[in-house]
Amino acid sequence: MKVITQDLGYPEGPIAMPDGSVLVLDIYDEALKRVSPSGQVTRIAALPGGPNGAALGPEGAVFVCNNGGTDWIDTGPGTRRTGPQSAGYRGGSIERVDLVTGRVETLYDAFEGVGLRSPNDLVFDGTGGFYFTDFGKRRAHEMDLGAVYWAKADGSEIRLLVSGMISPNGIALSPDGNSLYVAETYTGRIWMWSIEAPGQLRKADWPASYGATLFASPGGIARFDGLAVAASGAVYAAALDMCAVLEFQGPLQAPRLHPLPDLLVTNLCFGGPDMRTCYATLSHDARLVRFRVAEPGLVLHHAG
């Protein structure tokens, strides 16, 4: 493992760029930043609230899940964890950032008049749309349940696909685009749905939770955050409590462990000329790191 930079507040949402740089969200600093291969950090855009997950979309723009704002829990010198809903909570939203100008545009902040609570992560499907999770929002004595949505990149349509989830977080697609994976943080599970058409999931009958198939559940020993998929179809999950990335080669199989020295392994992506470099955000000590993996990552859809 190589540390690229420690000059961040609370990093998430890495995007590996063709020039070798990595775009990363800094939730604590409320900004989208670029990290050069040498570790130099530059700010691209201010994103007030809580920029939480990102993906490269049509026309080279970055689409951002903004959780609206969270309080912070200091856990030691230079370290922190996200806390409950902040006093300055702005409401959740999906935003589009122009990488050239830094202009920020809000695409979605509600569904059928109900505000988004805490959008967390997203993935494009190659048809002009993207799937995203809404984590829900935690307060001192209560919590909003989460959901999965599909929306068009031009801001013209949003659909609710799954509701009532407990902390849906990372989201990813299989290489053939026919399966959707969603990680639940607090339950330590990864769920899978078949995709019938863009923005349309095939739901299993009761008693299947959320109409989904259970893809991974390592016995409650891990809380999952971000997901990424290899070209082979293996699913990689950031495991918060295991100081590791877990690699699942198939449904309900024992994972391969990629240990990382941090208490909050939050997100990951693949990049490099051969797509075998894994970039990971280690948010407890606020680092962006990279390490090599045995197989190439999936080349993601950016436009459709």
UniProtKB/TrEMBL annotation:
This is SMP-30/gluconolactonase/LRE family protein. Residues 11-283 form the SMP-30/Gluconolactonase/LRE-like region domain. It comes from the Bacteria. It comes from Pseudogemmobacter lacusdianii.
